[in-house]
Structures are given as structure tokens and as C-alpha cells.
Design a protein that fits this description.
CATH class: Mainly Alpha
Distance between the termini: 43 Å
Mean pLDDT: 85
Helix content: over 70%
Radius of gyration: 23 Å
Shape: globular
CATH superfamily: MetI-like
CATH topology: MetI-like fold
Largest sheet: none
Number of helices: 13
Strand content: under 5%
Low-confidence stretches: none
Length: 275
């Protein structure tokens, strides 16, 4: 029994941590099914007596959440595609090709990790204003791609360094071009680590608020995070609807993390051992 005690204690601690992590989501879901009377007259920990499922219908139809949700989906997807593709090309050029300025270029990309988001808002706003991209979703896609490139390259580096050069040499000897080598051989081999970068980029892009709130003013281009702010301002007294809006914004990221969390660990550890 004494030998099992450390395991029992460990599992007890892990279960307690899991409960603390999951409970806020459960509470928010219960909150979204209440009306104002229940929210203010009863305990915040009480279950909804008459679940208000119409809160979800209300925010989707009357709160313009459908438009915000669609904008979040396509802006996030396009930004991820551009970021992962460009980062893969940069990492391939730095790690698999020999040229004098490769280390300098890598250092310049890594400097991007040290630039705070808020310090770039005014320069970016000025640049997009001159380019007539304010209130244009393209400004968001460009910003997301640029800001996610450094972290994406950093994650890809270890895996690319671990790839055997013999495979490339054999392909080049058979007459394979560099472009075909990258797209037909190298890129498919990096699927595990690419999955990791896709998920990390998705979480950042989906939850990002500052850039969209700064560069976008029209409702037709706003994403879900900024749309929630507008909905709260417009329907301040309908707290159940606000909870439903927040729940809708969480569900896609929650589903992605549940199904692909193992990919994150696999991709991060894929290039940990070089050889």
C-alpha cells in the first residue's frame, strides 16, 4: 500500500487540477442557459431551472454572430495557410541549403519573437492607412502571417535539422529540381510538426483581439472576438445571450484541442533528437 501511495497522491492532484480547469467551461455553459432573473436572483453556482436554449438562437440570428464566426473561420484558415507555407520555405532554405547569409536571416526572423504586439500597432496602422488597407480583412491576414512566422519557423527548425540529407542527395542525383524536392518529398515528411504549427497558429488567430479591433471598423469584416465586444455593448442586460456568445467562441478551439492535442506534443518532440 505504501508503494502505491505516491501514485494515489499524484492522481489525486491531477484530478483536482483537471476539475479546476474544466469547471469554468461548465460554469459558462450553465450561465449561457439562464435568463437574467436566474443570474441575479440565485446563486451563481446553481443549475438553470428552465434552460434557455433560445439564447443561442438569438445571438446567431439577431446578434450577427454568424457573420463574425464566418469571418473568423476564413481569416484564420487563410492566415494559417500562408504562415505555414512561407515558414516551411524559409526553414527549408535556412537548414537544407548552403548560403552565406542563412544565419543572419534566421536571426532577423527570431528578432520578431521579441517585438511586443502593442509596440507595432501605430506603425502598422500608418502603413495600412497609406496602403488603403484599413477596414480591409487583408490587413489582418498580413499581420497574422507576419507575427506567426517567427514562432512557426522556430518550431520547424528542429525537425528540419533532423531530416537525413541522403534522401535529398538521392533525389537531386535522379534529376529532381529543388522546387519538386521541397513540395513532393520534404513537405510531406514534415506533416507531424506542421500539424503542431497549424494548431498553435489557429489558437492565436482565433482568439486575437487587438489587431482586429484596431484595423477593422465595419461589422461585415469583424471576427468573433471583436463581435463579442459589440454584442456586449448592444445587449448589456441580456447576460444569458452574452454567455451563449462566449460559449460559441470557445467551442471551435476546444474541439480542435481535444482531437489534436497529441499532435502538439508529437510535433514539438519530433525534432528534439537530432540524427
Amino acid at each position: 500500500m505504501m508503494k502505491k501511495l505516491p501514485n494515489i497522491l499524484l492522481y489525486t492532484i491531477l484530478i483536482a487540477i483537471a476539475v479546476f480547469q474544466i469547471y469554468p467551461l461548465v460554469w459558462l455553459f450553465m450561465f449561457s442557459l439562464k435568463n437574467n432573473q436566474e443570474i441575479f436572483a440565485k446563486s451563481p453556482f446553481s443549475l438553470p431551472e428552465d434552460p434557455q436554449w433560445e439564447n443561442y438562437v438569438k445571438v446567431w440570428t439577431n446578434g450577427n454572430i454568424g457573420t463574425y464566426f464566418f469571418n473568423s473561420v476564413w481569416i484564420t484558415a487563410l492566415s494559417i495557410l500562408l504562415t505555414v507555407l512561407l515558414a516551411s520555405m524559409v526553414t527549408f532554405a535556412i537548414t537544407r541549403m548552403k548560403w552565406k547569409l542563412s544565419k543572419l536571416v534566421l536571426g532577423l526572423f527570431m528578432v520578431g519573437l521579441m517585438i511586443p504586439v502593442h509596440s507595432s500597432l501605430i506603425p502598422l496602422f500608418s502603413m495600412f492607412l497609406k496602403a488603403d488597407l484599413i477596414d480591409n480583412p487583408l490587413s489582418i491576414v498580413i499581420t497574422y502571417t507576419a507575427y506567426n512566422l517567427p514562432i512557426t519557423i522556430m518550431i520547424l527548425l528542429g525537425f528540419y535539422y533532423s531530416l537525413p540529407r541522403e534522401l535529398e542527395e538521392a533525389a537531386l542525383l535522379d534529376g529532381c529540381s529543388v522546387n519538386r524536392l521541397f513540395f513532393k518529398i520534404i513537405l510531406p515528411m514534415t506533416t507531424p510538426v506542421m500539424s503542431t504549427t497549424v494548431i498553435i497558429n489557429m489558437i492565436f488567430n482565433w482568439n486575437e483581439f487587438v489587431f482586429v479591433n484596431t484595423f477593422i471598423s465595419s461589422d461585415k469584416y469583424k471576427t468573433l472576438t471583436v463581435g463579442i465586444q459589440n454584442f456586449i455593448g448592444q445587449y448589456m442586460t441580456d447576460w444569458g445571450a452574452i454567455g451563449a456568445t462566449l460559449m460559441i467562441s470557445i467551442i471551435p478551439i476546444l474541439i480542435a484541442f481535444i482531437f489534436f492535442s497529441d499532435r502538439i506534443i508529437e510535433g514539438i518532440t519530433a525534432g528534439a533528437v537530432k540524427g
